[in-house]
């Protein structure tokens, strides 16, 4: 059987990225605030104590968000 990817997580990520782009394009949030939101989200997972048994998951989430920041996916940088 072919493994099904995390559809809920993929949908949530796509929606959030679209919202961040729309907020920036409509001058609701400046780029620096969107970057700050992403950095805060990454730090929340990077700094998670791992006592919930999901340390690898938290590290992977932080790495994914850091990759989004590096790639500029959620902010169309000018």
Question: Which key terms come to mind for this protein?
Answer:
3 helices; 67% helix; mainly alpha; globular; 78 residues
Number of helices: 3
- Biggest sheet features: none
Query: What is the overall pLDDT average?
Result: 87
Per the principal axes of the C-alpha atoms, what is the gross shape?
A: globular
Overview of the molecule:
This protein has a domain at 30-78. It has helices spanning 7-25, 31-46, 55-71. The protein is an all-alpha fold and 78 residues long. The model has no long low-confidence stretch (mean pLDDT 87). Helix 2 runs antiparallel to helix 3.
Topology, element by element:
Layout: H1 7-25, H2 31-46, H3 55-71
Helix pairs in contact: 2-3
Quickly describe the structure.
The chain is 67% helix and 0% strand. With 78 residues, the chain is mainly α.
């Amino acid at each position: 059987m072919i493994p099904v990817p995390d559809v809920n997580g993929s949908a949530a990520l796509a929606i959030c990225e679209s919202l961040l782009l729309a907020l920036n394009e409509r001058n609701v949030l400046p780029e620096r605030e969107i970057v700050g939101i992403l950095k805060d989200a990454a730090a929340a997972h990077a700094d998670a104590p791992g006592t919930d048994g999901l340390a690898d998951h938290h590290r992977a989430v932080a790495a994914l968000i850091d990759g989004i920041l590096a790639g500029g996916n959620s902010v169309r940088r000018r």
